[in-house]
Amino acid sequence: MWNARGKLTGDKFSTAYLFGFSYFIPNLSPKAPGHFAQLVGQPYVRQAIEMAVDQQGMINSFYHGHGVVEYSPIPAKPPTVFYDASIKNPAPYSPAAGEKLLESHGWHLVNGVMTSPQGYPFAFTLDYTSGSNTMTDQAELLKEDLGKEGIQVTLESQPFDTLIGDNDQANVTNWQMVWYGSWTYQPDYYPTGGGLFKEGSGSNSGDYVSTQMDNLINATYEPGTQSQITSRMDAYLQYAAENLPWIWMPWTPTFNETATYISGVNKWFNPITFGNSPNRWTINY
């Protein structure tokens, strides 16, 4: 529909970023099929996967230049006090670097497939939400770039309701990697990882376990000065960026068309609560 937007002559185009992030979840349960947990259980392996995610390419090709490269649970957009600009991307896009990272830890190609030191081929199935051509394009690009590292991916699309019903802690023997889409901070708007990455938490469907992560998250809930609270949140975000409990994807906006005679729609949009305030809009006929 992008190329046809000019036909809406009475409308104006704009973007708006919600407060959240996009991600893949690796199944880190020991019960995951195909020795998958042994393959991705080490952070450096997840870094190699992240290095195959061409976030800027996805933004340029599939979102027409709109979006931000993401590598932690707090997005650069919308602007909030929680975003830490000092955090640098620990696994920038580079399939060649990802391949070398695996090889430096004893992995090697066997018949074109990257194989672990234990002899397990790096091949897995990625389940992702069906119904979106854009998500399919992104998944296909990811498969291609992971292939450059010798990692074989089988793509399988399923309706969202099927994904959330089958790819969780109760069904850890059924899946390896899942892409639901995105996460937004609601109704708990405090953007820490208590419900996401703590051991046994409700949305930790990949069975990620890290004592250090638990301690860092617990610290974000402790009272303190504004400086102390910010420092604790930054430490949690830094660890999440480096340890990769999930695989980060680019964060992209909603695309909006608004009648030209309406003003204030974006100005009074609340990206945290997703709240619109029509009572503050101005109608100019």
The first-level CATH class is given as Alpha Beta
Instruction: Trace the largest sheet across and list its strands.
Output: 6-5-7-2-8
**C-alpha termini separation:** 27 Å
Per DSSP, what share of the residues sits in E-state strands of 2 or more residues? Answer: 15-25%
CATH architecture descriptor text: Roll
Polypeptide structure, described:
The chain is of the alpha+beta class and 285 residues long. The chain has one domain: Dipeptide-binding Protein, domain 3. The chain has a five-stranded mixed β-sheet. The longest helix has 18 residues. It is built from eight helices and eleven strands. The two termini are 27 Å apart. Helix 7 packs antiparallel against helix 8.
